[in-house]
Amino acid sequence: MINQKYLKIIFAALAILLLLVIVYVFQSMQDKEVKERPALRELAHKEGFYIGAAVNADYLDKDGLYRKTLDREVNMVTAENEMKFDVIHPEKYRYDFSKADKIVDFALKNRQKVRGHTLVWFHRIPEWLKKGRFSRDEMKLILKNHIQTVVGRYRGQVYAWDVVNEALNEDGSLRDSIWLRTIGPEYIPLAFKWAHEADPNALLFYNDYGIEGMNPKSNALYERLKQYKMNHVPIDGVGYQMHSWINRAIDFHDLKKSIDRLGGLGLQVQVTELDIGTAEPVQSSQSAKAKKQADYYAGALRTCLSSKACTAFVMWGITDKYTFRNKVEKPLIFDGTYKPKKSYWALFSTLENKKIEK
Ligand code: G3I
Predict the structure, then answer these.
(1) How far is the CA of 124 from the centre of ligand 1 (A)?
(2) pLDDT digit string, tens, across residues 74-110
(3) Per-residue pLDDT band at 27 (split at 50, 70, 90)
(4) Both 131 and 14 in a single domain?
(5) Is 352 an active-site residue?
(6) 40 closest CA partner among 74, 3, 6
(7) How many A from CA of 81 to the centre of ligand 1?
């Protein structure tokens, strides 16, 4: 006769087996669902359009689902931090391309375009540069060498560079930075010239936040770029960062107006860093917030697609698991377990249904 102890063991084993079967069936159903729907990148590709995400080399290394989701869904990636000055050029005579290489290799293997981010920024200045007390001529040489070494390494591999990032204040004046203080306002056109020399085929962008509407900053940028164009500065486009929140209204009419205005100068516009936080307002239900976020994503994509000048829509990440923002914001299109959110489906149907009037 089987004693009580053996019965317990048999029941426990059966329970574990049952659990494994349930997990397996659930996983297969999910896999089947994922295999059956087209990916965002396929829908975008049909329109000759890029849908992208910022990626992080450390997560690429350690998280298979992260790699799988990015590979499947996007045809453009941006290096979130790996090409920033202090990471890629930590000492005066030493570059570290290890993390940037990982992203470029991943993207090329998956037939994704790479956005290089970013060559010249007031932020992420390494200590050796901050403390160097270099003269104007030395700073020009340092910046030229930096740009040409980094752009040169990825010549033919990086499709577009954010050459200059966040160089303007809200009122449109030039933001204080080590580059402005030492080289003067010419650091901007010079940076574009040097980048163009290093890779004449790469698209060169100015990237900033708060320029997606019609306001003093976007007006000043427009005037500045008009001058640059007249002076043959090799600039191809403008990146709209668009980090936002569901409780901050966005005027899609102004968004279109500002894109078309830059398009009139012969410039492309790419949405480069979109994410939409949902923590506020606290009294709304989760489902109302998710819906509002989805409407926001769809509206931004629809507006971009409706303008000839807007050529890419890049989000600042792919999963809430790894947002750089406070986790409670849940600002991206996949949740922390890689389940597509309402915002994902909003992009999906916008790409699927929209007859693009380019
Ligand atoms: O350097 C440490 C590293 O040693 C440590 O392992 C790691 C652990 O968390 O922290 C590291 O520094 C962080 C760094 O990202 C990683 O490279 C910093 O604390 C953190 O402040 C930094 O934040 C990044 C931020 O730019 C500043 O560079 C965010 O990840 C990145 O998403 C954010 O991206 C910017 C765009 O470049 C420009 N537009 C705005 C956007 C959001 O702020």
Answers:
(1) 9
(2) 999 999 999 999 999 999 999 999 999 999 999 999 9
(3) low
(4) no
(5) no
(6) 74
(7) 6
What percent of the residues of the chain are helix, what percent strand, and what percent coil, each to the nearest 5?
50, 15, 35
SS3 266: coil
Is residue 63 situated within a structural domain? yes
Across all residues in the chain, what is the average pLDDT? 95
In a domain, 32, yes or no: yes
DSSP 69: H
Using CB distances shorter than 6 Å, the residues near ligand 1 are 80-81, 84, 123-124, 165, 241, 273, 324
**Residues 213 and 342 both lie in one domain:** yes
Active-site residue, selected from the candidate residues 82, 166, 212, 329: 166
Catalytic entry in 82, 212, 273, 329: 273
CB 34 within 8 A of CB 72: yes
Please give the tally of structural domains in the chain.
Answer: 2
Cα distances (angstroms) measured from residue 121 to each of 149, 155, 181, 208, 301: 17, 21, 13, 10, 27
Q: Give the mean pLDDT of 248-261.
A: 95
Annotated active-site residue 33? The verdict is: no
pTM for this model (two decimals): 0.91
> Is residue 81 a contact partner of residue 102, using CB atoms and an 8 Å limit?
no
Please check whether residues 66 and 29 belong to one and the same domain. no
Predicted confidence (pLDDT) per residue in 136-152, tens digit: 999 999 999 999 999 99
Phi, psi of 114 (to 5 degrees): -110, 135
Tell me the CA–centroid distance for residue 78 and ligand 1, in Å. Answer: 14
Residue 176 lies in a domain: yes
Judge whether 358 lies within some domain.
no
Distance 324 CA to ligand 1 centre (A): 7
Domain with 114 in it:
40-353
**Best mutation site among 324, 325, 326, 332 for ligand 1 pocket (most ligand atoms within 8 Å of CB):** 324
Q: Which residue has the higher pLDDT, 139 or 7?
A: 139
